[in-house]
Each structure stands twice: as structure tokens, then as C-alpha cells.
């Protein structure tokens, strides 16, 4: 089909998620209802009121750059369109829900599971970073799972390009309290290594069932982060403890890069070239 699409080209089904200025629905094409999509609907009025025009534009540009099927771990963007009220992102539908729900349901996960989940996250973040994109809001809610165990990173609403990162006071805290890196809290600094910090928090959470830093309120959480105040509750392989410890350091320059992570001894059996081996056959 050629030309711009309109909302009438889709049948909107149940709500999949809700953000501060967007709602995601499952949808099918009116002419061909065999394939599911996740359509993110952003209210123009809200975006303008909340001064989020810049972020929505960046989200669209970055997804156009990364989400064209270039990597299985980045949510695919099929098209965008708008009407008088809303902007629409037609995204790949990912059927297995959020990684957060998997952790909520199972608590601490078995090592084979979290190894393959983490390897996929590292591979996807490496792809993003090699294209100069910092996600800035990596957390288990923004990681979706397909029914076969493939992870898909979504919600690039806080993301930025490496060229505009660095010391950017206006964008100081855009992430989620529990996964925010200390340099953002202390110096309003954000770089590729802030995503790596979030990966460290996520790996910890997969092994322990809860994130490393969680206070009774945001301020307490921030205090724990800047003091590296976390404990291991569930027995965890030493290689994993060492890996998380190497990531959760205050100085972002001392953190491993995504390339370093791919070389980590705990992941030595991972075949990075064969992408589908990172999820196929792990969950049976
Ligand atoms: N919730 C938010 N985005 C989604 C997507 N792309 N697929 C399924 N559920 C979602």
C-alpha cells in the first residue's frame, strides 16, 4: 500500500500499556487482520503542554534509524502517521509481555535464563551504542519478550544521540529512579556508560528478583545509588557477582563498554554471530 496511512486503516484492540503522554494498543490492519501490531498513540495536546515535542521527534528519528529490522533486539517501527489529535507509531507487536513481569512471576531466575537474557541485552545495547544512541531509560518495563524468549528493547522516548549527550542540565533526570546512574544524579552527566549501569542493575535484578537500589522513596533510592549501597541476598555464581561489581562503579570511565561485556568470561560460550542462538531452545 502506498501513501500515508490513517487510524481508519487499523482496528484498535486492547490497551497494552500506558505512558505519561502515550498509550499503546494492540491493533490489526482493517484489510488483513492476521498480523498484530502495537500502535503507540501520543496525544499532540499533551506533548505540546508537557514540552515533549523534542523527545517525540528524537524517538521517531532514532527508531527510523535503528528500528528498521537492523537488529532483532530493537522494536521494529513499520510506519508513523498523525491526525488532528494524535501521533501514531506502528510498532512490532511483542507477545510475551515485559521482562518485569517475568521477574515478578518467577523471582530470581535460573542462570541459563538470565545468561541468555543478559547476552541479548548486551548485544542489543552494543548495536545501539555502535550507532551512537543512548537509550537513557533501560529497565525491565522497557524490555519486552517474544513468546520464544527473544528480548526487544522499546520506548526510545528518553533516548538521545551521542552528539547531544554529555553535560546536559536540561535533560538531567529522564530515567527511572532505580536504574539511574550516579553521574546523572551527581553531575547531570549522561553517556553510553549510563546505559551500562542500567544493564548492571538489570542483571542484578534477574539474579535476585529485586533491583539493587530501592528505597522507600526516590531520595532514599538516590542515596543508595551514590553510596553503592546494595547487598546480595540470593546465592549467585562468583563470575556474575564480579561482573555486576565491575559495572556498578561510580566513575563511568571505569565501567566496561558493551564491547568489553561481550568479552566477559561468564559469556565466553555465547555465539554472538548467531543471533537466534541467543534465545532459541533456552526456554524449553
Ligand atoms: N507494550 C508496549 N509496547 C509493546 C509492544 N511493542 N508489543 C507488545 N506490548 C507492548
TrEMBL record:
Residues noted as binding ATP in the record, renumbered to the chain: 40
Occurrences of domain Protein kinase (ranges): 10-267
Superkingdom of the organism of origin: Eukaryota
Family the entry assigns: Belongs to the protein kinase superfamily. AGC Ser/Thr protein kinase family. PDPK1 subfamily.
Name used for this protein in its record: non-specific serine/threonine protein kinase
Lineage: Eukaryota, Fungi, Dikarya, Ascomycota, Saccharomycotina
Covered residues, full protein: 1 to 284 of 611
Amino acid at each position: 500500500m502506498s501513501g500515508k496511512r490513517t487510524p481508519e486503516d487499523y482496528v484498535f484492540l486492547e490497551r497494552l500499556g500506558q505512558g505519561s503522554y502515550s498509550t499503546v494498543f494492540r491493533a490489526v490492519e482493517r484489510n488483513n487482520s492476521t498480523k498484530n501490531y502495537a500502535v503507540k498513540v501520543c496525544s499532540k495536546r499533551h506533548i505540546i503542554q508537557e514540552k515533549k515535542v523534542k523527545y517525540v521527534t528524537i524517538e521517531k528519528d532514532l527508531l527510523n534509524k535503528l528500528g528498521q529490522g537492523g537488529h532483532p533486539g530493537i522494536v521494529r517501527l513499520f510506519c508513523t502517521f498523525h491526525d488532528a489529535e494524535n501521533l501514531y507509531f506502528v510498532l512490532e507487536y511483542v507477545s510475551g509481555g515485559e521482562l518485569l513481569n517475568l521477574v515478578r512471576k518467577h523471582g530470581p531466575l535460573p542462570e541459563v535464563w538470565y545468561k541468555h537474557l543478559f547476552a541479548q541485552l548486551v548485544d542489543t545495547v552494543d548495536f545501539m551504542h555502535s550507532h551512537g544512541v543512548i537509550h537513557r531509560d533501560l529497565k525491565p518495563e522497557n524490555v519486552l519478550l517474544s513468546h520464544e524468549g527473544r528480548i526487544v528493547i522499546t520506548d526510545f522516548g528518553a533516548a538521545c544521540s551521542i552528539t547531544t549527550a554529555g553535560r546536559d542540565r536540561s535533560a538531567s533526570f529522564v530515567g527511572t529512579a532505580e536504574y539511574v546512574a550516579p553521574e546523572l544524579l551527581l553531575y547531570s552527566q549522561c553517556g553510553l556508560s549510563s546505559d551500562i549501569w542500567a544493564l548492571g542493575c538489570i542483571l542484578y535484578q534477574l539474579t535476585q528478583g529485586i533491583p539493587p537500589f530501592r528505597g522507600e522513596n526516590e531520595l532514599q533510592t538516590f542515596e543508595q545509588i551514590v553510596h553503592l549501597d546494595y547487598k546480595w541476598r540470593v546465592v549467585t555464581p562468583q563470575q556474575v557477582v564480579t561482573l555486576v561489581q565491575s559495572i556498578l562503579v561510580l566513575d563511568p570511565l571505569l565501567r566496561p563498554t558493551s564491547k568489553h561485556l561481550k568479552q566477559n568470561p561468564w559469556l565466553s560460550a555465547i555465539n554472538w554471530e548467531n543471533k537466534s542462538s541467543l534465545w532459541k531452545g533456552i526456554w524449553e
